[in-house]
């Protein structure tokens, strides 16, 4: 089927939470927008929302979307379908007033067949009610409305239906590759017709293999055709060389092309076993992974190709080679970005099955819809070379029950039934599984008795007090003892073995034990604490059965607000403090600025050879702060602390070298051991004085790398870094403009703060403007924002008309800075 963009000229109005009233809405109060569109990000944060910190205090609501479309009479012999790639949360679709489709999962794509309800030769109306009013339904920022692409699919009398082409690499090596293309074909007419199916495999626009097969299409019949092509000297896809081919499938009637489908794909093979780990094209690969949520920071959940590509590219540049989509099916745009940049994907089905984590979440309907969700997910993912494995679920409580184990087998078997080329896993949370298996009070008692731990809180009621006792001992040795406990083995064994790969959340000490218990099984850290990377990566390197790690998390996100914010006022993490909006636990913050933990991880991975200097905030020295297991240190790469001259400062040097030496204004602060034996960190305590701070690596007694920080002048100016100066005039392209404060020498000043205003003229709009501040009441629709750690960012979206876009930033006392972007 021919796919057409269907994002333009929609209207939106806030609904009434009444389907009848919402159906009648329309007209004067509606505003015209272009999809994708996240309605939640334009709402005002409120402390009164039931969602609280889970969505960053953004409330849910109902929204009505309306689109008019002219349907020509020649469509009488065709079929028309609309694909919605994502509508959060419940979608009700109407065509010319007739109810057509309901979709219950906000993260899965779905198709709506228009044919029975169309009026030909005239205007038609499509209405979508996106209902996200039921609070609470998400543990993170979900967004609201039609936040992913919408496509119109039109099929001729004989056509390839949606998701009708499956491309499989059968064998591949440097000499040749055998590729199977399976094509579904549908005949709408009551007459027989002979056609041909033509396959063309192209690389950089040139045909490298092709095949033609004759097929008789019987009246109103469907056929499945399998063809094979051989590609000589193929460019094999992997993380380092993400070469992509185009597979073009044509339906020919004589010389006439009735239908054409084009799919980007890669040629590659996967293999997996406990003795050799994961291999791509026969070469061993360790998963340097991160979990990510689906929002794009100051853009909210709006899913545009340029935003997904930017985030994927930044993740890859930070040293990751794999992404876990937490905890829902990944967008098509992000899948394509992962294909393009060579990032492997663990795509995840759901965050819950039969037990609620929120009263209005997907557990209400999961048992009724999961087979369909799995089928849609596989169809979406199948042709993407980046997709390595499917996760059946995240931290499912009932995995500690035999019925939960059976359900996991059923889900994993369904994945294999639909796709035999990928692997399955499950993100298992030991605490939740044990709670359902034997109860927290039992395992707490055993841990206390067996390991002589002190019981800090009464747990005899088996409820909230037991949970608090558990949390009080689940640090360090207590967590490791829990991870290796026989009761945990009993609780998770059957569920874990139902999948191809045992996936463990926050159970690092169990990874080697799993090899002893199940020598034929591979293991992956599906979710791990950021600070655990040093110990965990050593286990990954030394054990072939350990495939790698997915940290929580590589990129900061909206919702789950405050779990990683450093509180110095006595506040406690996870306590829903208004107006916190972001989790603040990403290696990169909301606008993509890499935090020190990101560079530590890159060094641990063996990808960075220069040292990295991280300074504990000098203005917070000696102050008590809150701490959760997801937090490393409240530090930044800055040696500018105006007003704190003569005050103590703690400096960490991250390094893989045997020794490092720190120099302050040319004076040595001494050499210290670093490298893996010292957690890749050498720590100094010194007195802050402005100037130059230099760290030097030494290997075998010789310098092997260095990094410097400089004190910036307090007199600053704005520097604008724009990632692109040319955009497509399609209404969906983006440019990211990062404004930072620098002195006359170009040195970043993270200490100074300025209120910066943005204005735009020309063929574009401001999609979002803001900083990485995790706790603020500002709206990303505001045109004035204060810098946070010296930065603020504007996202510019193109219009549908070509022209220039002039963006100007201004601040009191500073010279204006302007950037011109060309949209064509």
From TrEMBL:
Residues 646-703 form the DUF4982 domain. Residues 164-268 form the Glycoside hydrolase family 2 immunoglobulin-like beta-sandwich domain. InterPro entries: Beta-gal/glucu_dom_sf, DUF4982, Galactose-bd-like_sf, GH, GH2_Domain-Containing, Glyco_hydro2_dom5, Glyco_hydro_2, Glyco_hydro_2_cat. Residues 63-153 form the Glycosyl hydrolases family 2 sugar binding domain. The keyword Hydrolase applies. Residues 720-819 form the Glycoside hydrolase family domain. One of its GO terms (molecular function) is hydrolase activity. Pfam families: DUF4982, Glyco_hydro2_C5, Glyco_hydro_2, Glyco_hydro_2_C, Glyco_hydro_2_N. The keyword Hydrolase applies. Keywords: Glycosidase, Hydrolase. Residues 278-439 form the Glycoside hydrolase family 2 catalytic domain. Belongs to the glycosyl hydrolase 2 family. This is Glycoside hydrolase family 2 TIM barrel-domain containing protein. The lineage of its organism: Bacteria, Bacillati, Bacillota, Clostridia, Lachnospirales.
């Amino acid at each position: 089927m021919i796919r057409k963009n269907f994002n333009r000229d929609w209207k939106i109005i806030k609904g009434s939470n009444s389907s009848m009233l919402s159906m009648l809405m329309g007209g004067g109060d509606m505003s015209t927008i272009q999809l994708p569109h996240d309605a939640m990000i334009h709402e005002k944060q409120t402390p009164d929302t039931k969602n609280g910190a889970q969505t960053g205090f953004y409330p849910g609501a109902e929204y009505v979307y309306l689109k008019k479309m002219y349907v020509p009479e020649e469509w009488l012999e065709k079929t028309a379908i609309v694909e919605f790639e994502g509508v959060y949360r419940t979608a009700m679709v109407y065509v010319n007033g007739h109810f057509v489709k309901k979709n219950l999962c906000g993260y899965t794509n779905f198709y709506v067949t228009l044919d029975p309800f169309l009026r030909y030769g005239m205007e038609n109306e499509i209405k979508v009610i996106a209902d996200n009013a039921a609070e609470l339904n998400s543990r993170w920022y979900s967004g609201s409305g039609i936040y992913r692409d919408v496509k119109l699919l039109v099929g001729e009398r004989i056509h390839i239906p949606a998701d009708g082409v499956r491309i499989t690499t059968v064998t591949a090596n440097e000499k040749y590759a055998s590729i199977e293309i399976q094509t579904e074909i549908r005949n709408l007419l009551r007459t027989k017709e002979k056609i041909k199916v033509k396959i063309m495999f192209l690389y950089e626009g040139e045909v490298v293999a092709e095949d033609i097969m004759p097929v008789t299409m019987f009246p109103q019949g469907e056929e499945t055709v399998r063809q094979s092509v051989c590609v000589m000297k193929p460019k094999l896809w992997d993380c380092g060389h993400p070469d992509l081919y185009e597979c073009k499938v044509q339906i020919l009637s004589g010389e006439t092309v009735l239908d054409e489908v084009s799919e980007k794909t890669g040629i590659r093979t996967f293999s997996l076993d406990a003795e050799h780990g994961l291999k791509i094209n026969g070469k061993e690969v360790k998963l340097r992974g991160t979990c990510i949520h689906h929002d794009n920071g100051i853009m909210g959940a709006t899913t545009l190709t340029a935003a997904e590509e930017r985030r994927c590219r930044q993740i890859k540049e930070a040293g990751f080679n794999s992404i876990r989509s937490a905890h829902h099916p990944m967008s098509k745009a992000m899948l394509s970005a992962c294909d393009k940049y060579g990032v492997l994907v663990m795509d995840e089905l759901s965050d819950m099955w039969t037990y609620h984590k929120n009263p209005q979440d997907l557990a209400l309907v999961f048992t009724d819809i999961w087979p369909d969700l799995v089928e849609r997910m596989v169809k979406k993912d199948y042709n993407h070379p980046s997709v390595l494995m499917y996760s059946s679920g995240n931290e499912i409580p009932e995995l500690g029950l035999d019925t939960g184990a059976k359900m996991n087998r059923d889900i994993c078997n369904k994945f294999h039934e639909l796709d035999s080329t990928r692997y399955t896993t499950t993100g298992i949370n030991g605490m939740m599984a044990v709670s359902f298996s034997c109860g927290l009070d039992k395992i707490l008692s055993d841990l206390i008795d067996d390991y002589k731990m002190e019981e800090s809180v009464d747990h005899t009621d088996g409820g909230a007090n037991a949970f608090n006792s558990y949390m009080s001992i689940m640090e360090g040795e207590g967590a490791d003892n829990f991870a290796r406990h026989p009761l945990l083995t009993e609780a998770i064994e059957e569920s874990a073995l139902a999948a191809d790969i045992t996936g463990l959340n926050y159970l690092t000490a169990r990874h080697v034990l799993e090899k002893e218990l199940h020598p034929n099984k591979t293991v992956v850290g599906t979710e791990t604490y950021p600070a655990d990377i040093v110990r965990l990566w050593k286990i990954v390197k030394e054990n072939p059965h350990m495939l790698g790690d997915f940290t929580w998390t590589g990129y900061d996100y909206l919702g789950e607000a405050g779990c990683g914010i450093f509180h110095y006022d006595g506040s406690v993490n996870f306590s829903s403090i208004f107006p916190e909006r972001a989790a603040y636990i990403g290696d990169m913050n909301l606008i993509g600025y890499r935090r020190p933990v990101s560079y530590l991880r890159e060094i641990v991975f063996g990808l960075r050879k220069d040292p990295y200097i991280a300074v504990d905030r000098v203005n917070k020295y000696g102050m008590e702060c809150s701490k959760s297991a997801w937090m490393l240190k409240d530090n930044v790469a800055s040696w500018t602390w105006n007003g704190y001259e003569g005050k103590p400062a703690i400096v960490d040097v991250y390094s893989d070298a045997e020794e490092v030496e720190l120099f302050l204004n040319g004076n040595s602060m001494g050499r210290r051991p670093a490298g893996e034996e010292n957690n890749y960190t050498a720590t100094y305590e010194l007195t802050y004085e402005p100037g130059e701070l230099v760290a030097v690596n030494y290997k075998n007694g010789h310098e092997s790398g260095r990094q410097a920080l400089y004190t910036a002048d307090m007199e600053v100016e704005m520097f604008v870094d724009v990632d692109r100066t040319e955009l497509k005039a399609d209404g969906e392209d983006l440019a990211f403009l990062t404004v930072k404060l620098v002195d006359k020498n170009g040195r970043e000043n993270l200490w100074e703060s300025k209120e910066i205003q943005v204005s735009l003229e020309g063929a574009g709009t401001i999609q979002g403007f803001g900083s990485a501040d995790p706790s603020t009441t500002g709206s990303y629709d505001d045109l004035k924002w204060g810098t946070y750690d010296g930065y603020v960012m504007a996202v510019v979206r193109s219009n549908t008309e070509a022209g220039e876009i002039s963006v100007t930033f201004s601040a009191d006392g500073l010279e204006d800075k302007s950037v011109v972007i060309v949209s064509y």
